[in-house]
Amino acid sequence: MKDSHTTAHLQNNIGFAARQGYVIQKPDPKGTFSFRIPLKHIFGFCDDYEKVVYGFKHQLTLVRKGDNDAIFRAATADAGKVVLTKLSWYVPHVLPNDREKYELYKIIESKSSLSVGYRMIQCDSIPVPQTRNFTWRLSVKSAPEKPRWIIVAFQTDKSRDQEHIPSIFDHCNLTNMFVMLNSRRYPEIDYDDINFTQQKFSRVYGDAAAFQTKFYNVEDLISNPNITPADYKELFPVFVFGVTKQSEKLKSSVPDIQIKAQFSENVAVNTEAFAVVISDKSLIFQSDGDKMRVEPGLVAVECGRVSELSATDTDRKLIWKSLAKFRSAKVAL
Q1: Are 25 and 56 members of one domain?
Q2: 276 with 309, same domain?
Q3: Could you tell me which residues are beta bridge partners of residue 258?
Q4: Which end of the chain, N or C, is surrounded by fewer C-beta atoms within 10 Å?
Q5: What is the Cα–Cα distance from 29 to 125, expressed in whole angstroms?
Q6: Mean pLDDT confidence for 314-319
């Protein structure tokens, strides 16, 4: 269940009560539980690439941050700690029959190359100064890439201890925001109706609510985000910018991305901005006649369903950085 209040008044927080009952009250001994995370929820490559990967060694690396981002407690409770006792990685294996195996061998022996397109997700964060105007220059870490979506959110004083909910964001009395991608602005028309105090945020709420529909290209009834306007204002005020409508001319340079935001008052102390950039990316599975290897893609491609791996030009590793407060996670092929 989702959190229902932005403060640490636990008696008013339905989401906390549900999690606290599941993790603390019901288990014996107290505080023990297990959970399952499909890799497609973390790595876009796992979500988008649905074919068999043959002949590659897979390596999963998770770098952990502190416990404050995972625990929400009352001020009178002792500090909590998450202890991981076991980690299992389940990967389905496909055993081809002799005919299909022969076809695979022929592809490898012919030194074929296979293009793999996906949508890469990169997350960055930065402290926000105490001002009413905020400009943030982002950079996509490798090229060529073509940004398609940019998602921005703010948090004030949420990550310093366990008495605040790090999964909740703040609107910070934002009045307008836009993205500059090279020389083009998104959206072209100002969000001139944003006033959270007066309950005027229908346009940005609509953009956020429609994101899943546009991202996966599915019907509204299937992709309903289940976020009410009240939830959006108090819990999840994220700002979604679609930059898919741009020149298809591919550039070898790194795209220049700037975020410009305006607020009705100075931003509060200890405010942090987060930005997720979703870009088209490609890899090449190249055969040398004996085995397959991974090469960086030479061109960026727009894909129908592809989300969040990054292949560098130097070590060919797939790196992901999450809003969920892992410092980094990566898959190497």
Answers
A1: no
A2: yes
A3: 137, 180
A4: N
A5: 38
A6: 30
